Amino acid sequence: MAGLDEKYMSLALEQARMAFQRGEIPIGAVLVREGAVIAADHNRREELCDATAHAEVLVLRRGGELLGGWRLPGCTLYVTVEPCPMCAGALVQARVERLVYGAADPKGGAAGTLYDIVRDPRLNHRLEVTAGVLASECALLMQHFFQARRS
Fold it and tell me: Which residues of 84-104 are buried (b: 16+ CB within 10 A; e: fewer)?
């Protein structure tokens, strides 16, 4: 599984790099089902003037369109940075089976670091979580982005 996780996380990193080039916070996401990439995107908040246009939400929307429903069983979402509370909630609502993320987010991570929405036993669905896949690459991209913005 580790080799496949790195393969799909590399695709999410490509998306994150696109976001970086467009001045968006560099987070990329890829939705996979049965070994096929269903959707891939990156943050587009600035471009779309939409606070909810996070990479995770965009791929969940596209996945629902392509698969014909809002429930996404059997899907794995790969994302370069640990999801925020909004995105973690969307993953639970969409019934995604598994979450794989790169860098932890100590300021807002909702998949085990600050909160654990995706595994909260009080909710009607819980995800399997794999953290830290290509974490240093994912974190470095974020660091470069924010260093560039400060200078």
Answer: bebbbbbbbebbbbbbbbbbb
Going through 19-125 in order, the beta strands assigned E by DSSP cover 28-33, 36-42, 75-81, 98-103
**DSSP characters over 35-47:** TEEEEEEE--HHH
Q: What is the pLDDT of the chain when averaged over all its residues? A: 97
Model confidence pLDDT, tens digit, residues 6-62:
999 999 999 999 999 999 999 999 999 999 999 999 999 999 999 999 999 999 999
Catalytic residues: 56
Q: Rounded distance, CA 80 to CA 131, Å?
A: 10
How many Å apart are CA 117 and CA 76, to the nearest integer? Answer: 16
Q: What is the DSSP-derived secondary structure letter of residue 65?
A: H
